[in-house]
Batch of 2 targets.
Target 1
Amino acid sequence: MRHLVSLLLQNEAGALARVAGLFASRGYNIESLTVAATHDMDASRLTLVVFGDDAVIEQIVKQSAKLVDVIEVSQLSGDGYVERELLVAHVETRDVPAIDTCLGRFGARLLQRTGDRSVVEYTGRSEDIDAFLDTLRQAGRITDHARSGIAAIEWPLVAA
Protein backbone atom coordinates (compact mmCIF):
# COMPACT_ATOMS: atom_id res chain seq x y z
CA MET A 1 0.00 0.00 0.00
CA ARG A 2 1.20 3.52 -0.86
CA HIS A 3 1.97 5.83 2.09
CA LEU A 4 2.91 9.50 2.19
CA VAL A 5 5.01 10.59 5.15
CA SER A 6 5.76 14.25 5.79
CA LEU A 7 8.56 15.29 8.13
CA LEU A 8 9.68 18.69 9.31
CA LEU A 9 13.44 18.57 9.76
CA GLN A 10 15.98 20.93 11.22
CA ASN A 11 18.13 22.44 8.47
CA GLU A 12 21.31 20.67 9.45
CA ALA A 13 23.91 18.69 7.53
CA GLY A 14 23.14 14.96 7.49
CA ALA A 15 19.48 15.23 8.53
CA LEU A 16 18.20 13.90 5.21
CA ALA A 17 20.75 11.09 5.20
CA ARG A 18 19.69 9.95 8.67
CA VAL A 19 16.00 9.79 7.69
CA ALA A 20 16.69 8.03 4.38
CA GLY A 21 19.00 5.63 6.19
CA LEU A 22 16.27 4.71 8.64
CA PHE A 23 13.94 3.73 5.80
CA ALA A 24 16.68 1.91 3.89
CA SER A 25 17.81 -0.03 6.97
CA ARG A 26 14.28 -1.40 7.30
CA GLY A 27 14.41 -2.58 3.68
CA TYR A 28 11.88 -0.12 2.28
CA ASN A 29 12.45 1.47 -1.07
CA ILE A 30 11.67 5.16 -1.13
CA GLU A 31 9.50 5.62 -4.22
CA SER A 32 9.70 9.42 -4.09
CA LEU A 33 11.57 11.86 -1.89
CA THR A 34 11.17 15.62 -2.03
CA VAL A 35 12.78 18.09 0.34
CA ALA A 36 12.87 21.87 0.41
CA ALA A 37 12.92 24.80 2.80
CA THR A 38 9.70 25.91 4.49
CA HIS A 39 8.46 29.32 5.61
CA ASP A 40 10.65 28.76 8.69
CA MET A 41 14.29 29.16 7.63
CA ASP A 42 15.35 26.69 10.34
CA ALA A 43 13.19 23.85 8.98
CA SER A 44 12.76 21.84 5.78
CA ARG A 45 9.80 19.69 4.74
CA LEU A 46 10.63 16.20 3.55
CA THR A 47 7.90 14.24 1.78
CA LEU A 48 8.41 10.51 1.29
CA VAL A 49 6.33 8.05 -0.71
CA VAL A 50 6.86 4.45 0.41
CA PHE A 51 5.00 1.19 -0.08
CA GLY A 52 4.34 -1.23 2.77
CA ASP A 53 1.69 -2.45 5.16
CA ASP A 54 0.18 -0.13 7.75
CA ALA A 55 1.89 -1.71 10.78
CA VAL A 56 5.40 -1.42 9.36
CA ILE A 57 4.88 2.16 8.19
CA GLU A 58 3.52 3.06 11.63
CA GLN A 59 6.73 1.70 13.20
CA ILE A 60 8.90 3.65 10.77
CA VAL A 61 6.93 6.84 11.53
CA LYS A 62 7.44 6.29 15.27
CA GLN A 63 11.16 5.65 14.79
CA SER A 64 11.48 8.72 12.53
CA ALA A 65 10.00 10.86 15.30
CA LYS A 66 12.84 9.75 17.59
CA LEU A 67 15.56 11.08 15.26
CA VAL A 68 17.20 14.17 16.72
CA ASP A 69 16.77 16.28 13.56
CA VAL A 70 13.05 15.53 13.19
CA ILE A 71 10.71 18.25 14.46
CA GLU A 72 7.40 16.67 13.42
CA VAL A 73 6.18 13.58 11.54
CA SER A 74 2.81 13.20 9.83
CA GLN A 75 1.36 10.32 7.88
CA LEU A 76 -0.80 11.86 5.15
CA SER A 77 -3.93 9.95 4.20
CA GLY A 78 -7.52 10.23 3.03
CA ASP A 79 -8.70 13.73 2.20
CA GLY A 80 -6.39 15.28 4.81
CA TYR A 81 -3.73 16.54 2.40
CA VAL A 82 -2.99 18.09 -0.97
CA GLU A 83 -0.24 16.64 -3.16
CA ARG A 84 1.41 17.83 -6.36
CA GLU A 85 4.18 16.66 -8.63
CA LEU A 86 5.89 18.42 -11.52
CA LEU A 87 6.59 16.83 -14.90
CA VAL A 88 8.80 18.33 -17.61
CA ALA A 89 8.85 16.36 -20.88
CA HIS A 90 10.47 16.53 -24.31
CA VAL A 91 8.07 15.39 -27.01
CA GLU A 92 8.50 15.09 -30.78
CA THR A 93 5.64 15.01 -33.27
CA ARG A 94 4.73 16.10 -36.76
CA ASP A 95 1.19 16.65 -35.49
CA VAL A 96 1.79 19.81 -33.40
CA PRO A 97 -1.98 20.50 -33.04
CA ALA A 98 -2.33 17.11 -31.27
CA ILE A 99 0.21 18.22 -28.66
CA ASP A 100 -1.59 21.54 -28.23
CA THR A 101 -4.90 19.72 -27.78
CA CYS A 102 -3.33 17.50 -25.11
CA LEU A 103 -1.90 20.54 -23.33
CA GLY A 104 -5.28 22.29 -23.37
CA ARG A 105 -7.14 19.22 -22.14
CA PHE A 106 -4.89 18.87 -19.09
CA GLY A 107 -4.07 22.54 -18.48
CA ALA A 108 -0.39 21.86 -19.17
CA ARG A 109 2.04 24.49 -20.44
CA LEU A 110 4.27 24.68 -23.47
CA LEU A 111 7.71 25.83 -22.32
CA GLN A 112 9.58 25.76 -25.64
CA ARG A 113 8.95 24.69 -29.22
CA THR A 114 11.30 24.37 -32.17
CA GLY A 115 9.80 22.76 -35.27
CA ASP A 116 8.45 19.34 -34.27
CA ARG A 117 10.08 19.35 -30.81
CA SER A 118 8.34 20.66 -27.72
CA VAL A 119 9.15 20.92 -24.02
CA VAL A 120 6.02 20.77 -21.89
CA GLU A 121 5.26 21.17 -18.19
CA TYR A 122 2.44 19.68 -16.18
CA THR A 123 1.71 19.84 -12.45
CA GLY A 124 -0.81 17.58 -10.73
CA ARG A 125 -1.36 14.51 -8.62
CA SER A 126 0.74 11.46 -9.51
CA GLU A 127 -2.16 9.67 -11.17
CA ASP A 128 -2.94 12.82 -13.20
CA ILE A 129 0.68 12.94 -14.38
CA ASP A 130 0.45 9.28 -15.43
CA ALA A 131 -2.74 10.02 -17.40
CA PHE A 132 -1.12 13.07 -19.02
CA LEU A 133 1.91 11.01 -20.08
CA ASP A 134 -0.36 8.33 -21.59
CA THR A 135 -2.24 10.96 -23.58
CA LEU A 136 0.99 12.71 -24.59
CA ARG A 137 2.35 9.39 -25.92
CA GLN A 138 -0.65 9.17 -28.23
CA ALA A 139 0.11 12.64 -29.60
CA GLY A 140 3.85 12.21 -30.10
CA ARG A 141 7.03 10.45 -29.06
CA ILE A 142 8.33 11.31 -25.60
CA THR A 143 12.11 11.42 -25.90
CA ASP A 144 12.81 12.31 -22.27
CA HIS A 145 11.01 13.37 -19.13
CA ALA A 146 11.73 14.28 -15.51
CA ARG A 147 9.39 14.11 -12.52
CA SER A 148 9.99 16.12 -9.36
CA GLY A 149 8.62 13.72 -6.80
CA ILE A 150 5.63 14.51 -4.62
CA ALA A 151 5.30 17.63 -2.52
CA ALA A 152 2.41 17.36 -0.06
CA ILE A 153 0.94 19.33 2.79
CA GLU A 154 -1.86 18.66 5.25
CA TRP A 155 -5.27 20.11 4.43
CA PRO A 156 -7.50 21.38 5.82
CA LEU A 157 -5.28 23.28 8.16
CA VAL A 158 -5.74 22.51 11.82
CA ALA A 159 -5.65 25.50 14.16
CA ALA A 160 -2.44 25.52 16.17
Target 2
Amino acid sequence: MTWPLLFLLFSFFAFSHAQLTLDYYAKTCPQFDSIVRDISQQKQTEFPATAAATLRVFFHDCAVDGCDASILIKPTAFNKSELDYDINHSLAGDAFDLITRIKTAVELACPGVVSCADILATATRNLIVITGGPHYKVQLGRKDSLVSNVSNVEAHLTRANATVDLMINKFQSMGFDVKDMVVLIGGGHTIGFVHCKEFAHRIFPTPDPTMNPILVERLRKMCANYTSNNDMSAFLDVISPGNFDNVLFKNLMKGIGVLGSDQLLYSDPRTKPFVELYANNAIAFANDFAQAMEKVSVYQVKIGQQGEVRKRCDSINHN
Protein backbone atom coordinates (compact mmCIF):
# COMPACT_ATOMS: atom_id res chain seq x y z
CA MET A 1 0.00 0.00 0.00
CA THR A 2 1.48 3.37 -0.99
CA TRP A 3 1.89 6.28 1.40
CA PRO A 4 -0.54 8.51 -0.58
CA LEU A 5 -3.22 5.83 -0.25
CA LEU A 6 -2.50 5.42 3.45
CA PHE A 7 -2.80 9.18 3.86
CA LEU A 8 -6.15 9.17 2.09
CA LEU A 9 -7.41 6.34 4.30
CA PHE A 10 -6.36 8.04 7.52
CA SER A 11 -7.81 11.33 6.26
CA PHE A 12 -11.09 9.56 5.56
CA PHE A 13 -11.29 8.06 9.05
CA ALA A 14 -10.43 11.41 10.62
CA PHE A 15 -13.09 13.06 8.47
CA SER A 16 -15.64 10.40 9.42
CA HIS A 17 -15.04 10.91 13.11
CA ALA A 18 -15.20 14.67 12.66
CA GLN A 19 -18.77 14.33 11.42
CA LEU A 20 -19.83 13.00 14.81
CA THR A 21 -20.68 15.58 17.48
CA LEU A 22 -21.79 15.49 21.09
CA ASP A 23 -24.84 17.68 20.34
CA TYR A 24 -25.87 16.03 17.08
CA TYR A 25 -29.53 15.77 18.13
CA ALA A 26 -29.74 19.05 20.05
CA LYS A 27 -32.14 20.58 17.53
CA THR A 28 -33.57 17.57 15.71
CA CYS A 29 -34.35 15.42 18.78
CA PRO A 30 -33.69 17.28 22.04
CA GLN A 31 -35.46 14.53 24.02
CA PHE A 32 -32.94 11.91 22.89
CA ASP A 33 -30.72 11.93 26.00
CA SER A 34 -33.57 11.84 28.48
CA ILE A 35 -35.39 9.06 26.60
CA VAL A 36 -32.33 6.83 26.49
CA ARG A 37 -31.44 7.57 30.12
CA ASP A 38 -34.90 6.93 31.54
CA ILE A 39 -35.63 3.74 29.59
CA SER A 40 -32.15 2.34 30.30
CA GLN A 41 -32.61 2.95 34.02
CA GLN A 42 -36.07 1.38 34.02
CA LYS A 43 -34.95 -1.69 32.08
CA GLN A 44 -31.88 -2.22 34.26
CA THR A 45 -34.05 -1.99 37.40
CA GLU A 46 -36.48 -4.56 36.00
CA PHE A 47 -33.80 -6.88 34.59
CA PRO A 48 -30.36 -6.46 36.22
CA ALA A 49 -28.66 -8.49 33.48
CA THR A 50 -29.50 -5.79 30.91
CA ALA A 51 -26.24 -3.88 31.33
CA ALA A 52 -24.07 -6.93 30.74
CA ALA A 53 -26.20 -8.06 27.80
CA THR A 54 -26.15 -4.64 26.14
CA LEU A 55 -22.40 -4.15 26.58
CA ARG A 56 -21.78 -7.53 24.94
CA VAL A 57 -24.07 -6.70 22.01
CA PHE A 58 -22.26 -3.38 21.59
CA PHE A 59 -18.85 -5.07 21.47
CA HIS A 60 -20.07 -7.73 19.05
CA ASP A 61 -21.53 -5.01 16.84
CA CYS A 62 -18.48 -2.76 16.74
CA ALA A 63 -15.99 -5.59 16.22
CA VAL A 64 -17.65 -6.60 12.95
CA ASP A 65 -17.42 -3.82 10.36
CA GLY A 66 -17.76 -1.04 12.93
CA CYS A 67 -20.37 0.43 15.27
CA ASP A 68 -23.28 0.44 12.86
CA ALA A 69 -26.03 -1.64 14.53
CA SER A 70 -25.57 -4.45 11.99
CA ILE A 71 -25.80 -6.92 14.89
CA LEU A 72 -29.44 -5.91 15.42
CA ILE A 73 -30.64 -7.02 11.98
CA LYS A 74 -32.63 -10.23 12.10
CA PRO A 75 -31.91 -12.97 9.58
CA THR A 76 -34.39 -13.57 6.78
CA ALA A 77 -35.08 -16.36 4.31
CA PHE A 78 -32.87 -14.48 1.86
CA ASN A 79 -30.01 -13.40 4.11
CA LYS A 80 -28.12 -14.92 7.02
CA SER A 81 -27.25 -12.00 9.28
CA GLU A 82 -24.59 -11.69 11.98
CA LEU A 83 -27.09 -13.14 14.45
CA ASP A 84 -26.86 -16.47 12.62
CA TYR A 85 -23.23 -16.91 13.73
CA ASP A 86 -23.00 -19.41 16.59
CA ILE A 87 -21.21 -17.06 19.01
CA ASN A 88 -24.02 -14.55 18.59
CA HIS A 89 -26.73 -17.11 19.41
CA SER A 90 -26.04 -16.48 23.09
CA LEU A 91 -26.59 -12.73 22.92
CA ALA A 92 -29.30 -11.99 25.48
CA GLY A 93 -32.75 -10.76 24.54
CA ASP A 94 -32.74 -8.09 27.27
CA ALA A 95 -30.41 -5.98 25.15
CA PHE A 96 -32.53 -6.23 22.02
CA ASP A 97 -35.67 -5.46 24.00
CA LEU A 98 -34.01 -2.37 25.47
CA ILE A 99 -33.03 -1.05 22.04
CA THR A 100 -36.55 -1.72 20.73
CA ARG A 101 -38.10 0.18 23.65
CA ILE A 102 -35.83 3.15 23.12
CA LYS A 103 -36.28 3.17 19.35
CA THR A 104 -40.07 3.09 19.72
CA ALA A 105 -40.03 6.05 22.11
CA VAL A 106 -37.58 8.02 19.98
CA GLU A 107 -39.60 7.44 16.81
CA LEU A 108 -42.69 8.80 18.54
CA ALA A 109 -40.79 11.90 19.67
CA CYS A 110 -38.78 12.58 16.50
CA PRO A 111 -39.47 10.11 13.67
CA GLY A 112 -36.74 9.20 11.23
CA VAL A 113 -33.99 11.12 13.01
CA VAL A 114 -32.08 8.90 15.47
CA SER A 115 -30.07 5.91 14.31
CA CYS A 116 -30.10 2.56 16.06
CA ALA A 117 -26.30 2.70 16.18
CA ASP A 118 -26.44 5.90 18.24
CA ILE A 119 -29.07 4.36 20.52
CA LEU A 120 -26.92 1.28 21.16
CA ALA A 121 -23.77 3.33 21.82
CA THR A 122 -25.52 5.73 24.20
CA ALA A 123 -27.52 3.09 26.06
CA THR A 124 -24.33 1.08 26.60
CA ARG A 125 -22.57 4.08 28.15
CA ASN A 126 -25.56 4.83 30.37
CA LEU A 127 -25.79 1.26 31.64
CA ILE A 128 -22.08 1.20 32.43
CA VAL A 129 -22.58 4.31 34.56
CA ILE A 130 -25.69 2.87 36.22
CA THR A 131 -23.73 -0.20 37.32
CA GLY A 132 -20.90 1.88 38.77
CA GLY A 133 -18.61 2.37 35.81
CA PRO A 134 -17.05 5.57 34.46
CA HIS A 135 -18.85 8.16 32.39
CA TYR A 136 -17.37 8.87 28.98
CA LYS A 137 -18.38 10.98 26.01
CA VAL A 138 -20.37 9.42 23.20
CA GLN A 139 -20.10 11.20 19.88
CA LEU A 140 -23.32 11.03 17.86
CA GLY A 141 -24.29 11.02 14.22
CA ARG A 142 -23.67 7.37 13.25
CA LYS A 143 -25.74 5.89 10.47
CA ASP A 144 -27.09 2.34 10.53
CA SER A 145 -25.52 -0.34 8.36
CA LEU A 146 -27.24 -1.35 5.15
CA VAL A 147 -26.03 -4.94 5.43
CA SER A 148 -25.49 -7.70 7.99
CA ASN A 149 -23.78 -10.88 6.81
CA VAL A 150 -22.91 -13.94 8.87
CA SER A 151 -19.76 -14.41 6.76
CA ASN A 152 -18.28 -11.19 8.17
CA VAL A 153 -18.16 -12.40 11.76
CA GLU A 154 -15.57 -15.19 11.94
CA ALA A 155 -12.53 -13.01 11.31
CA HIS A 156 -13.39 -10.50 14.02
CA LEU A 157 -14.69 -12.24 17.15
CA THR A 158 -12.68 -14.48 19.46
CA ARG A 159 -13.91 -17.53 21.34
CA ALA A 160 -13.69 -18.35 25.04
CA ASN A 161 -10.67 -20.60 24.50
CA ALA A 162 -8.68 -18.04 22.49
CA THR A 163 -4.95 -17.73 23.04
CA VAL A 164 -3.37 -14.43 24.05
CA ASP A 165 -1.65 -14.26 20.66
CA LEU A 166 -4.99 -14.55 18.88
CA MET A 167 -6.64 -11.95 21.10
CA ILE A 168 -3.79 -9.50 20.62
CA ASN A 169 -3.86 -9.99 16.86
CA LYS A 170 -7.63 -9.45 16.71
CA PHE A 171 -7.44 -6.23 18.70
CA GLN A 172 -4.38 -4.94 16.85
CA SER A 173 -6.18 -5.46 13.54
CA MET A 174 -8.76 -2.97 14.83
CA GLY A 175 -6.14 -0.47 15.95
CA PHE A 176 -6.12 -1.31 19.67
CA ASP A 177 -2.98 -2.03 21.66
CA VAL A 178 -2.43 -4.56 24.45
CA LYS A 179 -3.48 -2.14 27.18
CA ASP A 180 -6.71 -1.37 25.33
CA MET A 181 -7.36 -5.08 24.96
CA VAL A 182 -6.88 -5.91 28.64
CA VAL A 183 -8.97 -3.01 29.92
CA LEU A 184 -11.79 -3.67 27.43
CA ILE A 185 -11.92 -7.39 28.19
CA GLY A 186 -11.89 -6.67 31.91
CA GLY A 187 -14.56 -4.01 31.57
CA GLY A 188 -16.72 -6.18 29.37
CA HIS A 189 -16.48 -9.11 31.76
CA THR A 190 -16.78 -7.36 35.12
CA ILE A 191 -20.57 -7.33 34.74
CA GLY A 192 -20.71 -10.08 32.15
CA PHE A 193 -21.98 -13.63 32.13
CA VAL A 194 -21.21 -16.63 29.95
CA HIS A 195 -23.05 -19.81 29.08
CA CYS A 196 -21.73 -22.96 30.72
CA LYS A 197 -20.90 -24.60 27.41
CA GLU A 198 -18.22 -21.93 26.83
CA PHE A 199 -16.12 -23.03 29.81
CA ALA A 200 -17.34 -26.59 30.43
CA HIS A 201 -14.06 -27.98 29.13
CA ARG A 202 -12.33 -26.36 32.13
CA ILE A 203 -14.43 -28.19 34.73
CA PHE A 204 -15.57 -31.45 33.05
CA PRO A 205 -14.46 -34.17 33.27
CA THR A 206 -11.01 -33.24 34.58
CA PRO A 207 -10.71 -29.71 35.98
CA ASP A 208 -8.17 -27.24 34.66
CA PRO A 209 -5.30 -27.36 37.20
CA THR A 210 -4.96 -23.58 37.04
CA MET A 211 -8.48 -23.09 38.40
CA ASN A 212 -9.23 -22.60 42.07
CA PRO A 213 -10.74 -25.92 43.34
CA ILE A 214 -13.57 -24.14 45.18
CA LEU A 215 -14.54 -22.32 41.99
CA VAL A 216 -14.48 -25.61 40.08
CA GLU A 217 -16.95 -27.19 42.51
CA ARG A 218 -19.28 -24.17 42.41
CA LEU A 219 -19.31 -24.13 38.63
CA ARG A 220 -19.81 -27.89 38.42
CA LYS A 221 -22.94 -27.64 40.55
CA MET A 222 -24.19 -24.63 38.62
CA CYS A 223 -23.61 -26.23 35.22
CA ALA A 224 -24.44 -29.85 36.04
CA ASN A 225 -27.17 -30.03 33.38
CA TYR A 226 -25.68 -27.69 30.80
CA THR A 227 -25.84 -30.26 28.00
CA SER A 228 -29.62 -30.37 28.21
CA ASN A 229 -30.10 -26.67 28.99
CA ASN A 230 -28.24 -24.32 26.69
CA ASP A 231 -29.32 -21.29 28.72
CA MET A 232 -27.38 -22.24 31.84
CA SER A 233 -24.77 -19.58 32.55
CA ALA A 234 -22.43 -18.13 35.15
CA PHE A 235 -21.17 -14.67 36.00
CA LEU A 236 -17.64 -13.93 34.86
CA ASP A 237 -16.90 -11.99 38.04
CA VAL A 238 -17.87 -14.46 40.75
CA ILE A 239 -17.30 -11.96 43.58
CA SER A 240 -19.18 -8.80 42.52
CA PRO A 241 -21.06 -9.69 39.34
CA GLY A 242 -23.51 -6.79 39.38
CA ASN A 243 -20.97 -4.04 39.97
CA PHE A 244 -18.77 -2.43 37.36
CA ASP A 245 -15.46 -2.49 39.24
CA ASN A 246 -11.91 -3.84 39.12
CA VAL A 247 -12.60 -7.03 41.07
CA LEU A 248 -12.35 -9.23 37.97
CA PHE A 249 -8.63 -8.43 37.79
CA LYS A 250 -8.22 -9.32 41.46
CA ASN A 251 -9.95 -12.61 40.72
CA LEU A 252 -7.50 -13.44 37.95
CA MET A 253 -4.61 -12.93 40.37
CA LYS A 254 -6.26 -15.49 42.67
CA GLY A 255 -6.89 -18.01 39.92
CA ILE A 256 -10.66 -17.59 39.92
CA GLY A 257 -11.19 -16.54 36.34
CA VAL A 258 -14.12 -18.40 34.80
CA LEU A 259 -12.94 -18.18 31.20
CA GLY A 260 -9.62 -19.69 30.23
CA SER A 261 -8.94 -16.74 27.92
CA ASP A 262 -9.41 -14.34 30.86
CA GLN A 263 -7.11 -16.32 33.15
CA LEU A 264 -4.41 -16.36 30.49
CA LEU A 265 -4.18 -12.57 30.79
CA TYR A 266 -2.49 -13.05 34.16
CA SER A 267 0.02 -15.62 32.94
CA ASP A 268 1.23 -13.94 29.76
CA PRO A 269 4.07 -11.44 30.32
CA ARG A 270 2.59 -9.03 27.78
CA THR A 271 -0.74 -8.71 29.59
CA LYS A 272 0.09 -9.55 33.23
CA PRO A 273 1.39 -6.03 34.10
CA PHE A 274 -1.93 -4.50 33.08
CA VAL A 275 -3.92 -7.06 35.08
CA GLU A 276 -1.82 -6.17 38.13
CA LEU A 277 -2.18 -2.45 37.46
CA TYR A 278 -5.96 -2.57 37.24
CA ALA A 279 -6.30 -4.97 40.17
CA ASN A 280 -4.41 -2.53 42.38
CA ASN A 281 -5.64 0.77 40.94
CA ALA A 282 -9.38 1.15 40.39
CA ILE A 283 -8.98 4.73 39.19
CA ALA A 284 -6.50 3.71 36.48
CA PHE A 285 -8.92 1.01 35.36
CA ALA A 286 -11.86 3.42 35.19
CA ASN A 287 -9.88 6.09 33.33
CA ASP A 288 -8.32 3.71 30.82
CA PHE A 289 -11.62 1.94 30.21
CA ALA A 290 -13.37 5.26 29.52
CA GLN A 291 -10.67 6.26 27.03
CA ALA A 292 -10.79 2.88 25.32
CA MET A 293 -14.59 2.98 25.05
CA GLU A 294 -14.49 6.41 23.44
CA LYS A 295 -12.12 4.89 20.90
CA VAL A 296 -14.28 1.79 20.36
CA SER A 297 -17.49 3.76 19.93
CA VAL A 298 -16.23 5.54 16.81
CA TYR A 299 -14.66 2.47 15.22
CA GLN A 300 -15.50 2.38 11.50
CA VAL A 301 -18.70 4.38 11.97
CA LYS A 302 -20.91 4.99 8.96
CA ILE A 303 -21.84 8.55 8.01
CA GLY A 304 -23.84 10.21 5.24
CA GLN A 305 -24.72 7.90 2.37
CA GLN A 306 -22.73 5.03 3.91
CA GLY A 307 -25.79 4.10 5.93
CA GLU A 308 -29.30 5.07 6.89
CA VAL A 309 -31.55 5.76 9.87
CA ARG A 310 -33.59 2.60 10.19
CA LYS A 311 -37.27 2.77 10.94
CA ARG A 312 -36.91 -0.52 12.80
CA CYS A 313 -33.64 -1.58 14.33
CA ASP A 314 -34.05 -5.22 13.29
CA SER A 315 -34.39 -4.61 9.55
CA ILE A 316 -33.05 -2.29 6.88
CA ASN A 317 -35.53 0.18 5.41
CA HIS A 318 -35.87 -1.13 1.86
CA ASN A 319 -37.13 -4.44 3.25
